[in-house]
Amino acid sequence: MRGNAVFMTTGKWQMQASDHQYAVQQRPHQDASVPRPRAVLADGVGVAALLDPLELEALLLNMDASLRVHARHQLFSWAQGMLQNLVKHDLLICALRGAEQPGYQVDSFAAPNIEPAQICELFRRDTALVPHLVKLWEQSEFQPVEYDAGPGSAFAGSPLARELKRSDASSLIVHGTYDASGRLASLFVFAAMPGKSAPRRDFFVKLIVPFLHLAWMRAQINRPLDGSAGDLQRDAKLLTVREQEILRWIHVGKSNIEIGTILGISPLTVKNHVQKILRKLDVQNRTQAVGKALALRILNI
């Protein structure tokens, strides 16, 4: 019994010490000229104490969802689904620092009105806005930083900033991970419509990015499809031509009524096709259907 008491006391002391250490790390930098996020933890106060029950539930559900990501379509479904409840965004850019500086391996997940491939290419080629975002993040002692890339910003003229403005996603929050040498390892940019920022978004970004980093790494490792050309052809034939056509319109955000108008069929017929698509792909909703079709290369970004 005494041994258990000692363990419990020691465990409690370790938790308090850990909380204290974490709180110390949150203290803002003394240099007032450096942009920094708001302090979110006080000495001795755990993260759970700062969240209301719904926020805590959303955080835990997202952590659990991140552990279930092992492929790109699963990351797509998470980013466009449950993660939106924690960090609302229209575009998520994931960038891994390449072996050859300053190259990046880039992927992005976006709302239907944004072209991810274009964003990725501009991000890789950018020599103005991206280095500035990295510098801000490093100067803030690796804390999330917010940045408005819209008109009036110093880098509004860069191709990447112009594309973000055109996509109505110029309000950025940036956070990343670093290696043992303190150098940037990965960078994540959550982009949203100006004025769409939710309270404490930077706080939730800080909590979820480590999970996002690991989920994206797993998706990258498993990204090449195992299978022969025959397997790919079989997957491509999983859906009929009409079903693939409807799924492409779903991918760009069209409703059943809009798809029916475009294809000259009734919304009810579209709905029936959608139900068949869900059954054939063994998914629960339209977002999951798009994600799995991308993974099987039935759809291409």
Task: Tell me the strand percentage band.
Answer: 5-15%
The largest sheet is:
5 strands, antiparallel
Which parts are unreliable, with pLDDT below 50 for 5 consecutive residues or more?
1-44, 224-232
Q: How far do the termini sit from each other?
A: 61 Å
Question: What is the spatial order of strands in the main beta sheet?
Answer: 2-1-5-4-3
Percent helix, as a range, is 40-55%
Number of beta strands: 5
Give the averaged pLDDT, no decimals. Answer: 79
Structural class estimated from helices and strands: alpha+beta
Q: Helix count?
A: 13
Radius of gyration: 22 Å
User: Shape from CA axes?
Assistant: globular
How do the SSEs run, as a string of H and E? HHHHEEHHEHEEHHHHHH
Description of the molecule:
The protein has helices at residues 2-25, 53-67, 72-80, 83-86, 116-125, 129-139, 159-166, 201-221, 229-236, 241-251, 256-263, 267-281, 286-295; strands at 91-97, 104-110, 145-148, 171-178, 184-192. By secondary structure, it is of the alpha+beta class. The longest helix is centred in the N-terminal third of the chain and has 24 residues, at 2-25. It is globular and about 55 Å long. Mean pLDDT is 79; it is low at 1-44 and 224-232.
Q: Which descriptors would you attach to this protein?
A:
alpha+beta, 13 helices, disordered N terminus, five-stranded antiparallel sheet, 301 residues
Topology:
Elements: H1 2-25, H2 53-67, H3 72-80, H4 83-86, E1 91-97, E2 104-110, H5 116-125, H6 129-139, E3 145-148, H7 159-166, E4 171-178, E5 184-192, H8 201-221, H9 229-236, H10 241-251, H11 256-263, H12 267-281, H13 286-295
Antiparallel strand pairs: 1-2, 1-5, 3-4, 4-5
Helix pairs in contact: 2-8, 3-8, 3-13, 5-7, 10-12, 10-13, 11-12, 12-13
